[in-house]
Specification:
Blueprint (H helix, E strand, L loop, with lengths): L16 H7 E11 L2 E10 L8 H6 L2 E8 L4 E9 L3 E3 L5 E3 L4 E9 L3 E15 L3 E10 L49
Antiparallel strand pairs: 1-2, 2-3, 3-4, 4-7, 5-6, 6-8, 7-8, 8-9
Length: 190
């Protein structure tokens, strides 16, 4: 069976460096030592005239903040951003997020192999459906990442698929044969 990656939802918000690179201007490059590791630091400002592909990039166009990149692993160590003006969804009828709302994401190396999320801090102030105001803070800390150990058992009749093997054909749906109904024959009741 062939797997297809899920199509991204245009209304999902996923703030990340890849989207930020498309819609922001980076300035003031510098080096810092963080936790004994060489780190590149950049200030950024969103470009309101940049073309945004989804809601996340629309939000990132309105941000200003700082990006820290671990120089050794080329991994994002920290990303902060503050909304520079009010952000409207559906012209402000659905959601209006107020200027000054901010976020701060921090990652950490785990087992000197991979970088995972350490903390998320978010402050959002706004209005929903023109009437319901909201003002909230989120602070989430992640820790105790563990490496999972797995085993695989090959059953008799199984075969290992190599990258060079051609893909398996997709199964064809089975359809029942068409039924013929004669106008002179009344339908059968079940």
């Amino acid at each position: 069976m062939k797997s297809h990656p899920p199509k991204p939802d245009k209304n999902t918000v996923n703030l990340g460096a890849s989207g930020l690179l498309k819609v922001a201007t980076f300035t003031n490059p510098r080096r810092e030592q963080i936790n004994g590791r060489p780190t590149l630091v950049f200030d950024y400002t969103g470009d309101p005239s940049a073309k945004a592909a989804d809601l996340s990039e629309q939000i990132m166009r309105e941000l200003a903040g700082t990006l820290w990149v671990d120089e050794r692993d080329s991994a994002i160590l920290r990303l902060t951003g503050t909304l520079q003006k009010n952000f409207h969804v559906a012209g402000g009828l659905l959601v209006n997020i107020k200027k000054g709302s901010w976020f701060d994401f921090t990652d950490m190396p785990v087992n000197n192999e991979i970088w995972f999320l350490r903390t998320i801090k978010v402050h959002v102030d706004g209005r929903f459906l023109l009437v319901k105001g909201f003002d909230g803070d989120l602070h989430q800390t992640y820790s105790d990442y563990r490496k999972l150990k797995t085993t695989v058992t090959l059953l008799p009749g199984s075969h290992i698929v190599d990258k060079t093997d051609p893909p398996s054909p997709e199964p064809q749906p089975t359809t029942p044969p068409p039924q013929t109904i004669h106008p002179s024959t009344p339908p059968q009741s079940w």
